Amino acid sequence: MKREVVVVGERETVTGFALAGVGRAYLHSSREETLRLLRGLLREEGVGLLLVTHRVAEELGEEWRRMVREKGPFPMVLRIPDRTGYRPERDELEEMVRRTVGAEVVVRREEE
Amino acid sequence: MMALSPTRMELLRLRRRIALARKGHDLLREKMDALVMEFFEVLRKIYEKREGAFDQLGKAHSSLSLCMASWGTAETEQAAREARKGAVLETSLRYIMGVPVPVVEVGETVRTALGRGYSLHPSPSLLDRASEEFERALKMLAEVAELEEAARALAWELERTRRRVNALEYILIPRLEAALKFIGMRLDEMEREHFFRLKRIKATLERREAVGGGAEG
Amino acid sequence: MEEVLKAELARLNSPFPRERVPLEEALSSERPGVPLTNGGFQPFKREELELLARILPSEERKELRLPILLALDPGLGRGAVKIGGRAEARAVGRLLGKEVKGGELVIHRPELLEVRRKLPTTTYYLFLP
Questions:
Q1: Which of A51, B74, B160, B175 is deepest in the core (most CB within 10 A)?
Q2: ipTM of the predicted structure?
């Protein structure tokens, strides 16, 4: 099934991906507005990939994290750096490892 | 504690339930182990690809700043509005131990200058350069997204399976075993009582026979 | 809790491939893969099909059916995986550089990882009760 790519971020991110052919590139405005937009996008069958900058995702906070946790395989959601290369200190993946697998397996992985 | 009647039937029933719980535990533990393996495999691939994708995005942003600085921000944004749209992914699902994970086929995202559909001919090379770098980044990011979704889904299933394994191991199986032990003991006790009662009856009968002067057995 | 367990065990092999197709057929298919019991479709990656075709003699390409089932059988001990079927066992054996005697192969965790790494879409887990 063909699904489209959607981007939500600040001006340069939106411009750059529009140049690359992304048809729906939304400028982040306020937390409420963007949350409403994303809630709708998560329900759209035709959206395959949703790119959101780390800075925007951080501003959206726990509510956005919960929305991502509860969604199905599509749309895929990926947090990306913005033009400044900003990435938050807490790495989402490391946290996923700690939370779901627990210390015992992390140790095993280091031994491998 | 569950309501138990100390009968042979109940004993057999409990043994069957314990066997089922143990079998289920072993199967789910296999699933848990395999999920851990699959999860770390996906994680390894993410670490392999993510930095490269983010670096490419950084490069794309540099090209874009350059373009905006020398050609103009408004002009660049105008070109972005004009650019031909159609970034789509061919998507499907596959399953890893019942867990649905996305499959993405990312075709060629890099387009020709003409394919981008700008109104300017020829388009400024800085604009083409920026577009191309973002097109490259898009493809790499889609691949990372596919992996991150798989990691998320596997992690969720892993958490759930581990909860089940633990519940079986630390709650259900010990509880059933305690019940089995309890019934076993009660049955033994009842058997002993029964045995002693029989013995007593026998002794009484024998005494009566002895008093009555009956023949020896 | 036992109801939950029963539901969980019923979920183990769901969805499952509705059929298995010979490698040769998958190679010539426009959209290689198999239908699943839930109405879904398990796609095969072409590079995996080509890898299998490279390591198998042509008569085994007809015999090998995909996806290759990786049977997790707790009866064999923790982490043991059984691969049934002569062509399937031999294909996996060749992938691992292992001699296969008879029509069955049992592998363990590090080998399973290697198989899954090379054949992520053309192998499928099967839980044996």
A1: A51
A2: 0.93
